[in-house]
Amino acid sequence: MTTITTSLPDELVQRLAKYAKTLGLPKNKLIEKALSLYLDHLKRVAYVKSYQAAGKDQDMLSLAEEGMGEYLKQLEDETR
Fold first, then answer.
1. How big is the CA angle at 8 (ends 17 and 5), to the nearest 5 degrees?
2. Which domain holds residue 14?
3. What is the largest CA-CA distance in the chain?
4. Where does the Predicted DNA-binding protein ribbon-helix-helix domain lie (predicted)?
5. How far apart are CA 53 and CA 68, in angstroms?
């Protein structure tokens, strides 16, 4: 495990201490969990943006439509 040193605003440290006490967690564990959740959130936001961009790309839309056509054909073949 790596140790880092950082500066935080006093008000944020007070809030951190309050929640850590309420949850019965060490402050470093609460920071670890909060940072992990935030980084996961950023990753999801990036995925959403990439899908939104793909939705505006005509080549991607054409590929998706072709794929759906093939999928529909497979479903029809299976129901026969």
1. 100
2. 10-78
3. 69
4. 4-40
5. 19
